[in-house]
Fold:
Amino acid sequence: VAGNFSYDGTNGPSHWGKEYKTCLGKYQSPIDIEEKDVTTMTFPELQFSGVEGSHKAYMTNNGHTVMIQSFDSNVPSISGGPINSTYVFQQLHFHWGQNDNQGSEDLINNHSFSMELHVVFWKKEYGSYDEAVKRDDGLTVLGYLYQATDEPNPMFESIVQQISDIIGVGSNITISDNNVLKKLVAPDIASAQNYFTYRGSLTTPPCLEIVQWIDFVKPQHISHEQLAAFRSIQSADGTNLTHNFRPVQPLDGRTVYRNIA
Ligand code: 1SD
Ligand code: ZN
Structure:
């Protein structure tokens, strides 16, 4: 378990490679996506299933982020787009910054957004998440970008309200809103075919290079106050987790595609 990493000091991102060699690899995430350099492509339609309806969901402070999981038998899955088989929902989590001018992991034209949501899926063919992470094409992660505004975003209401119950590392609660997965996993069907996609890695140790990233082009919003709630949770050393984004990594010849539906 990759427990002893942080976002500052001697366990910060520039030191991850000492213990986790893969973090020094050539296909690392996040990256800066320069729109002028992307290759346009028409992929098959990206499809979501099992998103509608209610899901019992749990929210955890794992010391590195706010993570949401569901142990329902019917969890969301995705297929199509740049992936040629079905990937099953594992968990979703967030990355944010010390202030509203940073926080996203991937950048677009060198612009940082205030927050990024990652929805993690594993390849169904491999039978389980633990088996999937041993394979090159084991995971697909959907990335959603959020810009801070004055206007609260209703999709974050229940989460923000309940963050105060998971301030301590390891705390875990049931989310009162059974529609939270529906809202977060596929919020905007109209924009779902408008994405960048590239091959990369987990953005946290062990930085495994097993991820097909799908980043939706159209940012959503979150209010300054809602965002501030995320900064109130604690990290393993007992201080506030004020930021948890990894700096961008070299593209190193990789192609970033943009889907043109
Ligand atoms: O940071 C997450 C990490 O918490 C874990 O969820 C991992 C997948 O098991 O993924 C990374 S990330 O690349 O989605 N940020
Ligand atoms: Zn992430």
About this structure: Residues 23 and 226 are 31 Å apart (CA to CA). The first strand starts at residue 32 and ends at 33. Residues 93, 95, 118, 203 surround zinc ion (ligand 2) (CB under 6 Å). The chain has a mean pLDDT of 96.
